[in-house]
Design a protein that fits this description.
Elements (H helix, E strand, L loop, with lengths): L11 E4 L8 H12 L4 E4 L5 E2 L2 E2 L13 E4 L3 H13 L4 E4 L10 H11 L4 E3 L5 E4 L2 E2 L12 E9 L2 H14 L2 E7 L8 H10 L5 E6 L5 H11 L5 E5 L4 H11 L6 H11 L2 E3 L2 H13 L8 E5 L2 H13 L9 H10 L10 E2 L6 H13 L5 E5 L11 H7 L7 E4 L4 H12 L4 E2 L2 H21 L6 H23 L1
Parallel strand pairs: 1-2, 1-5, 5-6, 6-7, 10-11, 10-12, 12-13, 13-14, 15-16, 15-17, 17-18, 18-19
Antiparallel strand pairs: 3-4, 8-9, 8-11
Helix pairs in contact: 5-6, 6-8, 9-15, 10-15, 11-12, 12-13, 13-14
This protein binds coenzyme A.
C-alpha cells in the first residue's frame, strides 16, 4: 500500500538533522535511531557526522535508495528539499516544518501543493509525522513523552499537540497503538486516505481520529461506511463554536463546517462520536479491545457499594439497562457469596471480597442470558484482594461478552491497571467513564446492526464456556492429586 512508505520504509533520510541536543532535528534523529532498523541518513551541510551516524550535505550525496525523507528545516528551505526529493524519485516525504497556510503563507503552501502533485506522497507540512513500533519520528523527547507499546489502536490527528499528549496518556496506562499519524495541513495525504489505510491495516482493530476539518464529506462517509463493517471508528471533531472554527483556520489553515453537519455526517458514516478528548481516549481503547455490545442490558459487579451506585446511574443515563438477574443466577450467586453480599444487579461483593469471590460471581453472571456485557469494579486497596484479580478479570473475556473494568487508586492500583490493560481489558478510574465506554460499545453494536446485521455472539460464548469448564476440571484434578 502506498502509505506504507510512511510507516515501514526501507530507509529514512532526515533533512535538518541537528548537531545540537534539544533541537527538533536532533530529537527526531534520536527517535528514529531508537526505533528504525534500516539505514538512516542524516542530512546537514554543516556536519560530517551526527549522533554517531555519517551525515550528508544533501539528499543527492547519499547515493543510496531513500524510502522516506523527513524534513525539519526552516519553512523557507522546504521547497528546494522537496524538489530534490522529487528529482531523486523518493516516494514519500514528511514535512515537520511550520510556516505555511497556518501562518498566512497561503502562496507558499499552494506552491508546494502544485509541486508535489502526483510526484511524491507528502504528509504535512506543520505536523509530527508518524509513529509505530518500527518507526518513531516524534520530536518529543522520550524522557518527556512515553511511547505506547505495540497495540491495536490506529490513531490519526490533525493536531500534533492533541495527538502526542493522548499518546503519552495511552502509554502511561499501558494501552497499545498500532500506528499513529499526525498530518497537519494535509496538502496531500489527508484524513480520508489515512482512515482508508488504517481500515485495511491488519494490526489496527479500531481507528481513532482527531479532526478539525474533513476534506471531502461525501467520500469520507463512503469510506467510513465500508470500514465500520469490519472495525469501529471513533472521532472527535474540534472547532464546533464560532470561536473554535476561527481557531481551526489559524491552526492548520482550514475552514470548518458547523458542528451539526459533522455530527450528522458521523452518524451517517457509522462513526462513534467522541464529544471530548477524554471520550476519544476512553472510547478508542474499549472499541479496540472489546466486542460490540449487541443489546443494552448489562450487569455491574463491584466490591464497593458506592461505585456500584454511581455505575448504575451513569449506565442508565447513557441508555443502558440493568435488568433483574435470572432466578438461577441469583441462586448461584447467593451460594457463592456471604449472606451480607448483595446478589442482585448491581452485584455487591462487599469490601472483604477477594479474587475467588469475583471469579465465581463473574462466571455466574456471564452465563445469564439476559446479560450482554459487564462492568467489573474491583477496588484493589481492600485487604483481602489479591493481585490475581487481574487474571480473574482477564479470564472474564473468555465469556465472549464485552467487559470494562473500574480500578481507582495510586501506585499499587496503577501497577494492576497496566497489567490488565496489557491483557486487552480497558480500565477506567471512575464508574462514569466505564459506563460511557459501555455506551460506546453499544453505539458500535447499533452500527453493526445497521451495516452488517450478523449476530455472532453465540459461537464464541459456547467456546468460552467449554474453555472455562476445561480449566475448572483441570484445577479440580490438580486439587485432588
Ligand atoms: N538542509 C539540511 N540541513 C539544514 C538545512 C538544509 N537546507 N537548513 C538548515 N539545516 C540544518 C541546520 O544547520 C541545523 O543544524 P545544526 O543545529 O546542527 O546547525 C538544523 O538543520 C536545523 O536548522 P535550524 O535553522 O537551526 O532550524 P530550527 O531547528 O531552529 O527550526 C524547525 C527548524 C523545522 C524546527 C522550525 O522551522 C519549525 O518549523 N518549527 C515548528 C515545528 C512544528 O511545530 N511543527 C508542527 C508540529 S505539530
Amino acid at each position: 500500500m502506498e502509505l506504507d512508505a510512511f510507516f515501514i520504509p526501507k530507509s529514512v533520510a532526515l533533512v535538518g538533522a541537528s548537531r545540537t541536543p534539544g533541537k527538533i532535528g536532533y530529537v527526531i534523529l534520536e527517535s528514529i535511531k531508537s526505533s528504525f532498523k534500516g539505514p538512516i541518513y542524516p542530512i546537514n551541510p554543516q556536519a560530517t557526522e551526527i549522533a554517531g551516524l555519517i551525515a550528508y550535505p544533501n539528499l543527492t550525496e547519499v547515493k543510496q535508495p531513500i524510502g522516506l525523507v523527513v524534513i525539519a528545516v526552516p519553512g523557507e528551505a522546504v521547497k528546494s528539499v522537496v524538489e530534490e526529493a522529487i528529482k531523486l524519485k523518493i516516494p514519500a516525504a514528511v514535512i515537520i516544518s511550520a510556516g505555511f497556510k497556518e501562518t498566512g503563507n497561503k502562496e507558499g503552501e499552494e506552491e508546494l501543493k502544485r509541486l508535489v502533485k502526483g510526484k511524491i506522497r507528502l504528509l504535512g507540512p506543520n505536523c509530527l509525522g508518524t509513529f509505530c513500533k518500527d518507526l518513531d519520528m516524534l520530536f518529543l523527547p522520550r524522557d518527556r513523552m512515553k511511547r505506547p507499546v505495540d497495540g491495536s489502536i490506529g490513531f490519526i490527528t490533525q493536531s500534533g499537540a492533541v495527538g502526542s499528549t493522548i499518546m503519552d496518556d495511552i502509554a502511561f496506562e499501558g494501552v497499545g497503538v498500532s500506528k499513529f499519524a499526525s498530518y497537519g495541513n494535509a496538502i496531500d495525504v489527508n484524513e480520508l486516505e489515512l482512515i482508508d489505510y488504517l481500515g485495511k491495516d491488519l494490526s489496527t482493530r479500531a481507528i481513532a481520529a482527531y479532526l478539525e476539518t474533513i476534506h471531502d464529506g461525501v467520500k469520507f462517509i463512503e469510506i467510513c461506511k465500508k470500514i465500520v463493517k469490519i472495525k469501529p471508528i471513533v472521532a472527535l471533531k474540534a472547532g464546533k463554536t464560532a470561536k473554535g472554527t476561527e481557531a481551526v483556520l489559524s491552526h492548520t489553515g482550514a475552514l470548518a463546517a458547523p458542528a451539526e453537519v459533522y455530527a450528522a455526517a458521523f452518524r451517517q458514516a457509522g462513526i462513534v462520536e467522541a464529544k471530548t478528548t477524554e471520550e476519544l481516549f476512553d472510547f478508542s481503547k474499549v472499541l479496540a479491545s472489546q466486542p460490540p455490545l449487541r443489546d443494552n442490558k448489562i450487569a455491574i459487579i463491584t466490591d464497593g457499594g458506592g461505585f456500584g451506585i454511581l455505575a448504575a446511574d451513569a449506565s442508565i443515563q447513557n441508555g443502558l439497562e440493568l435488568p433483574e438477574l435470572a432466578k438461577e443466577t441469583v441462586k448461584a450467586l447467593a451460594a457463592h457469596m456471604p449472606e451480607y453480599a448483595i446478589a442482585k444487579n448491581p452485584v455487591d461483593l462487599t469490601g472483604d471480597a477477594n479474587s475467588e469471590r469475583f471469579a465465581g460471581a463473574i462466571a455466574v453472571v456471564a452465563k445469564d442470558p439476559s446479560i450482554h456485557g459487564m462492568i467489573i469494579i474491583a477496588l484493589a486497596q481492600v485487604p483481602n484482594m489479591e493481585e490475581s484479580i487481574v487474571d480473574v478479570i482477564r479470564d472474564a473475556k473468555m465469556h465472549g461478552k464485552p467487559i470494562v473494568a473500574v480500578m481507582n487508586g495510586s501506585e499499587y492500583t496503577m501497577k494492576l491497571v497496566r497489567r490488565l490493560e496489557s491483557f486487552g481489558v480497558p480500565v477506567y478510574p471512575f464508574a462514569e467513564r466505564a459506563a460511557k465506554a459501555m455506551f460506546a460499545l453499544r453505539e458500535y453494536g447499533k452500527v453493526l446492526d445497521r451495516f452488517a446485521p450478523v449476530h455472532v455472539t453465540k459461537a464464541p460464548e459456547r467456546k468460552a464456556e467449554k474453555l472455562i469448564a476445561k480449566k475448572a476440571n483441570k484445577a479440580a484434578k490438580k486439587k485432588k492429586s
